[in-house]
Each structure stands twice: as structure tokens, then as C-alpha cells.
């Protein structure tokens, strides 16, 4: 139940036992064209996509160094570790950021974003973290941003490392120019592959102003793909097999059903853990469907609680980041998550709390969760 890497189904793990093939062979062409097609299906896009052999930060960095240059102005909401890192990356390119800072657990509102566009007609781009993994918030108005961005002629770039594949993010319908994710979160593959999609106009921009980096030079990936269906550099082949299998599992279940399952499971976790007396960290309208962050009851020892959960119940959850360390814990709700994971987590948390002398009504927790899981009943 970590906020990533998440559990990887056996079918995906087994896919890595394929022989190491020549990445300049017809076998690789078959594998990679399938990876690209399935990535496009999950991103709901016809845009170019690249599956980088890197963790999520690789795709995020590629999404910045290929797009942003010295002197560009970039609007970016900042409310946690990953949006902070993204802003730093952008500033590292010599760009000027217009930071829409909100306190952790709250997102900038759509009106604040609109106001920022109104006040910065010269903004070259809007960058946003879809799902702030450090605090369990998710932005719910990404379908309405393209209109604002296109009015200003700005590019629209989304870091959805911890959510894509678990909640709707139809890249073409929502007009997202560049979208990045990581395979180890809602896609439920092992860490090490990070896909990125690029719209035709963003691609043109990248080709006109190629980045100085070699490994993350996306135009180089487009060129290789078009000429030979290859990648410019040696890809992490076993991970590529695993990633393809994970995408196949999502597409077999169907995106709608996958999204409904994530939603029902997170509703159940919020309701069930809430009934145990644990309060979500994020404001209700901003709560994430893939990361459930909860405040610790006063005085509860973080390391001891998570240690008990892990050692006695084999349930792994994560602690807080930065100054939230010791104040919150985070439960991942992604990938293969289902009623079993939800109920087991709630009963284990109730038991661990009881072992630490905190009264928690396990029955009430399980009943509240069960109600939210009803939509998933066969
Ligand atoms: C929103 C977000 N962006 C970027 C990253 C970085 O990904 P990675 O740790 O795979 O490099 C993460 C990781 O949790 C994330 O949640």
C-alpha cells in the first residue's frame, strides 16, 4: 500500500523473464511499437510518445529541458515536494516562474489559475503536478486548462507520475501538450520506465530549440522511432517487457473500470480509515484517488506505527515528507488495488492502533469501507 512503487502482478513480473534481445532487431521493433501503441491507448492520445528508461523524474526532466529556455515565463501551482521540484527544474533552465503557492493539502483553485493567465499574457507555459504525492492532493480541473493556455498561446504540461492510469487524463481531449508519468505507480509495472507524450506543436517547439542534453533529447527519440522504430539508446529491455504487460492488463480491464475501481477503493479508504478516527490531511475537494494521506492522532509514533503495520500485518505504508514527517502517513491506492487491499489495510491499521493504545472501532471502519466498495460488486 505504498504511494509507489506499487505491487506488481505476477504476470508482469514473469514478462521480465524474456531473453535479452538485440535492441536493433525485428523483435525489438515488435516490442517497442506495441509499447508505443499501448501507451497511446492508456494516455488516450494520438500524440508522439516515448517510453524512457528512467524513473519518473526522467520523464519530468525531459518534459522541462525540451520545452523551457532561459527567459521563458512559466505559471506553476506549488503545494508540496513534487510541484516544488518541478518549479526548481524550470527555474534551473533560467526561466522565470509565476508560482501559485498554496499550503500543503490544498490546490490552487481554477480561478487562481485563470487569474494567473490573465495577469501573465506572456507566459510561455503552464506546468502542473496532477497529483501531489507528498500530501495526497489531486487537481480536478485539468480538463479546463487548455482553453486558458491556448488563449495565451502557452503550452500545457502535466506531471501525472503518481496518477496516470488510475484516473481519467485523456490527453487529446483535454489538450495537454506534454504529459509525463512513471510506470511504478498506477500502471503497476516495476520502476524504471517513464513514458511521456508530446503534441505536434510541442514537438515542433522542441525541434526548433533542441536541448543540450543527449539522453533526454526527445527529438532524437522521435527521429529514431520514425526511421527504424528503435530508441536512440539501449533501453531497459526486461522493464520494457514488464511495462507492456502492465499496459495490457489495464487495457484488458478497460480504462473506465480501472478508474472506477481506483475511485471506489480510495472512497472506501477515506471512509473506513475516517471511521477509525483518522482524519485525511488534504481538503475534501482536493483529495487524491491514488494517495490517501492521513493525520496521525496526537502523539502517535510514526516509525513504531508503520513498523508494526509492516512486521505484524505485512502492510507497507509511507511516512510524510519534509516537515510533514511524523505528522502524516500515506497509503497508496493504485495499480491492482481492490477490496482485499482496502479491507486488509483498514483492519490492520485498526489493530496496529489498538496495539499502540489508541481505540479504533474496526467494525465501523470495515462497514464504512464496504459501503463505498458496493459499486465494484460483481
Ligand atoms: C508527482 C511526482 N512527480 C515525480 C516523481 C518522481 O518519480 P521517481 O521517483 O520515479 O523519479 C514522483 C515520485 O513519487 C511523483 O509522485
How does this structure look, described?
The chain has 378 residues and is α/β, with parallel strands linked by helices. It folds into 2 domains: 10-253, Aspartate Aminotransferase, domain 2, CATH 3.40.640.10; 255-376, Aspartate Aminotransferase, domain 1, CATH 3.90.1150. The chain is 43% helix and 14% strand. It contains 13 helices and 12 strands. The chain has helices at 10-15, 26-43, 56-65, 81-92, 110-119, 145-152, 200-208, 218-228, 237-253, 255-275, 302-313, 339-355, 362-373, and strands spanning 48-53, 73-78, 96-101, 125-129, 131-132, 137-138, 155-159, 178-180, 193-198, 291-295, 318-319, 328-332. The protein has a 7-stranded mixed β-sheet, sandwiched between helices. A 3-stranded antiparallel β-sheet has the order 10-12-11, covered by helices on one side. Strand 11 (318-319) and strand 12 (328-332) form a beta hairpin. Helix 5 (110-119) packs parallel to helix 6, helix 9 (237-253) packs across helix 10 and helix 11 (302-313) packs across helix 12. The longest helix has 21 residues, at 255-275. It is globular and about 60 Å long. The two termini are 24 Å apart. Pyridoxal-5'-phosphate (PLP) binds next to helix 3. Residues 4, 55-57, 60, 82, 129, 131, 133, 159, 161-162, 182, 191 line the site of pyridoxal-5'-phosphate (PLP).
Amino acid at each position: 500500500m505504498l504511494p509507489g512503487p506499487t505491487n506488481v502482478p505476477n504476470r508482469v513480473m514473469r514478462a521480465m523473464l524474456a531473453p535479452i534481445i538485440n535492441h536493433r532487431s525485428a523483435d525489438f521493433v515488435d516490442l517497442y511499437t506495441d509499447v508505443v501503441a499501448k501507451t497511446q491507448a492508456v494516455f488516450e492520445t494520438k500524440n508522439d510518445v516515448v517510453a524512457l528508461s528512467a524513473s519518473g523524474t526522467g520523464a519530468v526532466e525531459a518534459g522541462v529541458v525540451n520545452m523551457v529556455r532561459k527567459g521563458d515565463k512559466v505559471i506553476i501551482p506549488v503545494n508540496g515536494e513534487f510541484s516544488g521540484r518541478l518549479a526548481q527544474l524550470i527555474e534551473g533552465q533560467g526561466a522565470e516562474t509565476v508560482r501559485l503557492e498554496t499550503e500543503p493539502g490544498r490546490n490552487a483553485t481554477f480561478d487562481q489559475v485563470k487569474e494567473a493567465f490573465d495577469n501573465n499574457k506572456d507566459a510561455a507555459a503552464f506546468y502542473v503536478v496532477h497529483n501531489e504525492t507528498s500530501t495526497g492532493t489531486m487537481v480536478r480541473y485539468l480538463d479546463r486548462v487548455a482553453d486558458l493556455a491556448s488563449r495565451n498561446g502557452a503550452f500545457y504540461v502535466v506531471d501525472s507520475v503518481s496518477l496516470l492510469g488510475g484516473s481519467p487524463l485523456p490527453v487529446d481531449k483535454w489538450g495537454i501538450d506534454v504529459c509525463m508519468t512513471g510506470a511504478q505507480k498506477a500502471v503497476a509495472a516495476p520502476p524504471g520506465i517513464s513514458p511521456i507524450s508530446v503534441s505536434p506543436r510541442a514537438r515542433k517547439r522542441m525541434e526548433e530549440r533542441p536541448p543540450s542534453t543527449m539522453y533526454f533529447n526527445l527529438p532524437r527519440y522521435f527521429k529514431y522511432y520514425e526511421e527504424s522504430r528503435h530508441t536512440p539508446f539501449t533501453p531497459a529491455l526486461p522493464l520494457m517487457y514488464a511495462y507492456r504487460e502492465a499496459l495490457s492488463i489495464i487495457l484488458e480491464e478497460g480504462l473506465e473500470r480501472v478508474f472506477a475501481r481506483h475511485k471506489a477503493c480510495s472512497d472506501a479508504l477515506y471512509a473506513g480509515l475516517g471511521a477509525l478516527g483518522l482524519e485525511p490531511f488534504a481538503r475534501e475537494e482536493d483529495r487524491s484517488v491514488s494517495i490517501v494521506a492521513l493525520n496521525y492522532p496526537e502523539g502517535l509514533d510514526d516509525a513504531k506505527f508503520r513498523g508494526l503495520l509492516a512486521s505484524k500485518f505485512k502492510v507497507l505504508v509511507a511516512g510524510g515528507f519534509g516537515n510533514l514527517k511524523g505528522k502524516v502517513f500515506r497509503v497508496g491506492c493504485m495499480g491492482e488495488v481492490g477490496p482485499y487491499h482496502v479491507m486488509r489495510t483498514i483492519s490492520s491499521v485498526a489493530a496496529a492502533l489498538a496495539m499502540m493504545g489508541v481505540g479504533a472501532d474496526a467494525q465501523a471502519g470495515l462497514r464504512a469501507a464496504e459501503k463505498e466498495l458496493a459499486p465494484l460488486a460483481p
